[in-house]
Amino acid sequence: MTAEAYGRFYDGVYRPLVSAFHGRLIDARTIQAEQHEYAAERAELIRPFMTNSARKTMLDIGGSTGVVAAHFAKEFGMRGTLIDPAPLEVEQAQRLGLETITGLVEQHDFGTRRFDMVIICQTVDHLLDVAGTLARVRQLLSGDGLLFIDIVDFRAAYLRNWSVEAAIKIDHPFYLTERTMVAYLRSSGFDVLRSDYAADHLHVSYVCRPGSADADVMPAVASVEEMLREVRFVQNAPHRM
Prior knowledge:
alpha/beta, Rossmann fold, 10 helices, 7 strands
């Protein structure tokens, strides 16, 4: 899809589609309880990097209803800005006192604005261009800014379900692992300060700072071959282990 078509997808199609896929209502209201729990847990991961911090501005990319951004803003004394392509979810975020932008970060013109923290929570798997978005974030961060980003670890998902198909989500163009995410971050000019699994044992979070880009970094060939062998084994196993 083009960026414009992807924006239209999130305006009215996305939530009904994932609700049908999962067989339960998933919308801007029903997801908030889970988001509150996630926000509180992940704030503790970031807290050590915010002690005596002068960071005051935060951008939440794909921030949904704003629950995570609002929690971080309150906890760390920051002014929160949220950008998301889904109008109904942006409307919920406005009620939390956040500055909101309906759209895609790849398209929106921020002018000369820079942010002391950028957060990308449960969003990177939805992007159409991971490398391009990370390069954009690198431009939007202030010199001593922080990036908080998480992934659904695809390997953890298919091992939990003992099925590659069961690890697939209808709304994820990308499936990332710890090794591929670190490679994306390093190639985009970020140094990983800390990484940690969330309580669900599926999401892996990274706290990063701007660094030097290593355009040639890739996961080791041996690790890729090992994972492909594992995927084939999981797919061909006669029963769940």
